[in-house]
Amino acid sequence: MTDIIQLLPDNIANQIAAGEVIQRPASAVKELLENAVDAGATQVRLVINDAGKALVQVTDNGKGMSGTDARMAFERHATSKIRQIEDLFRIKTMGFRGEALASVAAVAQVEMKTRREADELGTYIEIENSAVVRQEACACPVGTTISMKNLFFNVPARRNFLKSNAAELRHIMDEFIRVAMAFPDIFFSLTSNGQEVFHLETGSLKQRIVQILGNNYNAKLVSVQEQTDYMNIHGFVGKPETARKTRGDQYFFVNSRFIKSAYLNHAVNAAFEEMIPKDSFPGYVLFIDLDPSQVDINVHPTKQEIKFEDEKIIYAFVQAAVKHALAQFSIAPSLDFSLNADIQQLDAVSKPFTTDKKDAVASSNLYQAFTQKNQAHFIERTKPDSQEKTELKHWKSFFEAPNPAPEATDKPMTIPGLQARKSGLELIPDTPLLQLHNTYIIASTNSGFILVHQQLAHERILYDRYSVAAHGQQMATQKSLFPVTLELPAADAALLTDLLADLHSIGYQVEPFGNNSFVIQGIPADITPGNEKHAIELLIEQFKHFSNDIKFSRREKLVRCMARQQAIKAGQQLSQKEMLTLVEELFDCGSPNVTPTGSPTYLEFKEDYLDRMFGK
Ligand code: ADP
Ligand code: MG
User: Fold this and answer.
1) How far is the CA of 32 from the centre of ligand 2 (A)?
2) Fewer beta carbons below 10 Å: N end or C end of the chain?
3) Of all helices (H) and strands (E), which one includes residue 289?
4) Smallest CA separation from ligand 1 atom 8, residue
């Protein structure tokens, strides 16, 4: 018998490793932008064609590479940023794993031009399937241009896995924004299919935030700034009135690296407690800087998750810093008549900020701990350690519980023993309907009674109505008397642009207004006017939850989101007439017994079954 184990050839090993680092065009964008920043560039230009599927190109004016380095850069584990394991805990650069360029070169055709200031001529290099196919001297400006073409040209299975251009472009914008936000003193531009989407001149962090997130943040940012020996925090939180129904504008950076942390996010939200309605999210752009030895950034291949040496301190610090900033802001509340009504009613806004309250904030242990320099480690432990730990864990798991996202399941469309029988079930005329707990409707039928869940039933009705509309028969629109403008972050604006035609077919009249803003000119005739803006924002957010689902067309997703969003909710009191209409409309549906996602809409209790139950 011969032995069977072989070493994989480099190009295959690289392709496998690339799976972790380069999942989509946006991952390459992130790596290339970070390399440009690490190279000390002051100008970074990103060019995208075909949502990065055809081309991702980054040009920087950084320090460039020598001819040998240019070749070396594409080897796996080739990096100039660390030399020994201890260096991992002193990292000041964005990259350090030395695998990004190797991964890119394994799954795309790569061209690079690079020159150092000291060299007269630069290097041109061409790579395919991890092998250098051409290298020559060339004339080029100082810095580096890397072009990545035809991503996954040699891994068709992964190419097919990529999403629509709109979706991939959104991912790219997200990554671009995350890097650009962290370095306001670097110029960044993003050009997609020949059109410049972002042109970010250098300036202050505040200017960068407004450039990226939109003018509606102008004059509505509260500065956060605390310094201790252990860590610093700086950045901005949006004033309470800028809180939105979507989680979009939340950015945390640790040592300039964008990170995702439900835990820290919770710390900020907690600081806003009582100042914003429960279901809305404050915007923030916050930077935490601390000794690199206090964080492990090497727990995730794309480095978006990190581990803190002491999470609790960071949590408390972030919360205290944001609270402090907000307290200062409420001492002099700005009279802003555009304040949203649900916010106005909150105590924190409607009641004057009393001296008592001010004192309470100022005398809290945390506040003192963090406003006195050198005091960060003296956060008083008010509870035994173990108890505190479980509490924190609880916070975490509480927060990580996913929102009930619109869920698409493969559940069968019928429920055992309860077939849709449009003709079979008949309501007994002139019999009053009964509403239970403002959620269930009891209606007598020719063969017993049914228990209808009002929200689920309405979801089915609306789904059918919107589906018909989406497939040709346009829904009626009511023109808005006061058209509402809506300003969105670039990524959301791209998504909404993509949805405009479909929204129109279901009765929304939304028009682009330039600069990522839109005007809502009309809404579906059967929707109560007044919260158009919220409705669209919510729709975008729900749609995003769906965006990974390839089973459904865009239209189908939209229809499902709309039905769910507009359905009467459980807990709402209904009149006799409303109940009757609801039940009748339900039975006009093709499959009245289930929602589009497969939940039952009603349960039927037949007379003979009831008789049997009572032994009759
Ligand atoms: P890492 O960034 O983790 O070191 P990469 O694969 O991204 O690994 O890059 C490998 C090396 O190539 C870097 O360490 C750096 O020395 C060099 N390099 C990559 N991109 C650039 C660039 N835009 N300008 C100058 N040098 C670069
Ligand atoms: Mg890198």
Assistant:
1) 7
2) N
3) strand 284-290
4) 98
**Ligand lying closest to the C-alpha of residue 101:** 1
DSSP string, 191-257: EETTEEEEEE----HHHHHHHHH-GGGTT-EEEEEEE-SSEEEEEEEE-GGG-BSS--SEEEEETTE
In the chain, the N- to C-terminal Cα span, in Å, equals 78
Closest ligand 1 atom, CA of 34? Answer: 2
Domain spanning 10-200: CATH 3.30.565.10: yes
Judged against a pLDDT cut of 50, whether residue 27 lies above it is answered with yes
DSSP for 387-412, please give it: HHHHHHHHHHHHHHSPP---------
Let me know: does 285 contact 236? Beta carbons within 8 Å.
yes
Ligand 1 centroid, distance to 64 Cα (angstroms): 9
> Domain 205-328 carries which CATH code?
3.30.230.10
Q: Whose CA is nearest to atom 21 of ligand 1?
A: 35
Res 470 pLDDT > 80:
no
Residues at CB less than 6 angstroms from ligand 1: 31, 35-36, 38-39, 60, 62-65, 73, 78-81, 95-102, 144
Distance 95 CA to ligand 1 centre (A): 8
pLDDT at residue 115, as a whole number: 97
∠ Cα 75 19 152 (to 5°)? 85
Q: Could you give the strand order of the β-sheet that contains 434-436, starting from the edge strand earlier in sequence?
A: 434-436, 440-445, 448-453, 602-606
Segment 374-416, tens digit of pLDDT = 333 333 333 344 443 333 333 332 222 223 333 333 332 222 2
- Token pair 């093709």 is found at 590
Question: Best of 29, 34, 38, 66 to mutate for ligand 1, by most ligand atoms within 8 A of CB?
Answer: 38
> Given this structure, which CATH class describes domain 394-403+411-616?
alpha beta
Nearest-angstrom CA–CA distance, 486 and 242:
12
Domain parsing of the chain, residue ranges:
10-200, 205-328, 352-392, 394-403+411-616
Residue closest via CA to ligand 1's atom 1 equals: 98
